[in-house]
Task: structure prediction
Amino acid sequence: MFEIFTVIADWLAYGMLGLEPASRLGAAVHFFIEDTTKIFALLVVMIYVIAMARASLDLERVRAYLHKRHRLAGYFFGSGFGAVTPFCSCSSIPLFLGFTSAGIPLGITMAFLLTSPVINEVAVVMLWGLLGWKFTLAYVAIGMAVGIIGGMLLDAMRAHRWLQDFAAKAYQQAQAAAPQGSDDSGEPVPAKRLTLGDRHAFARDELKEIVGRIWKWIFIGVGLGAGLHGFVPEGWFAANLGAGQWWSVPAAVVAGLPLYSNATGVIPVLESLIGKGLPVGTTLAFCMSTVAASLPEFTLLKQVMQWRLLATVFLILLINFTIMGWVFNGIAPWLSIGGA
Amino acid sequence: MMKIEVLGTGCKKCVNTAEQISEAAESLHVEAEVEKVTDPAVIMRYGVMATPAVAIDGKLVHSGSVPDRETIEGWLRG
Result:
């Protein structure tokens, strides 16, 4: 089904531009054309379809649903809703406070917030198209695991002590009134009733909004990926940063930290890295570190968290990414994913 | 005189919302004071979970997106 994009790229790069398939420039240009056409086509279709489906999802209902769950299930559902809910980093503060002031445990809220930027339809569609379904599943599993484990650890440490005062007070009052797991979560929230026309309007706006926001990231990401693809020698990563070198995973996490990108920009680069023999766990660790642990977003959270809590969350993320990277390097042969 | 608060922690959409409201008020000749609220404690008190949100004279009327022109004019006409 995706061969059409290879044909288009063959035709443009080798036919129209007259580039040599064996040359570096030819390989890079071919990669760039194939990936940009494929990604844009997939995105337009998928964003529209998914937006149609989730037009009726709203945060009030998610919150009421989470509130009724048993604590343990709450981490899982928190992370799951984080994955399917559209999310803009500028909404993280009100969302955090909305959950906290309803008495939802900090760990469940954080499971939501940690998973949300990592897993979204754009990331899943791109991974699927560029790296196949096994890698996509691995990515989703890690993204959710990091959120769930991170949330559990934070609650185990009773991290809500380190919220900013006004948030901590709101949390305690709500906890006293209706603890997690109780059915008493106030007024039931009715589902929105939407016609097909409403859904279409919502999906069209979403499509415009998302593509308008990410198109430049796709060009940057695919451009970088194409450069790597054409100009880094085959097997260079395997030889220098292979799975044998245990330190390559924490090194990848640290290297990803100052790089602030969203999932859209980094996935085309992953495709090239794996193609050149970088182990799959190392690549995933690098990706998560780039996408999830971004300093600008963390500084935003300072408004509701004390430094101590911020630093704890950050540390948990880094340790999680590293462990996940090792685990996936270990099981990669068994999953038969990656370049090797 | 209407007091219109735009709630949001300072993203582009919130600035955009405030500008749209000011423009609409001017073109309709409605006297309105448009204020951007970024204090998270105030936003929490309104119970808003998605920004930008809009409150008129202390009452929440909108949240989660940049409101369209028709909606804004509806508020301003009262």
User: Anything to note?
Assistant: Chain A has 16 helices and no strands. The mean pLDDT of chain A is 81.
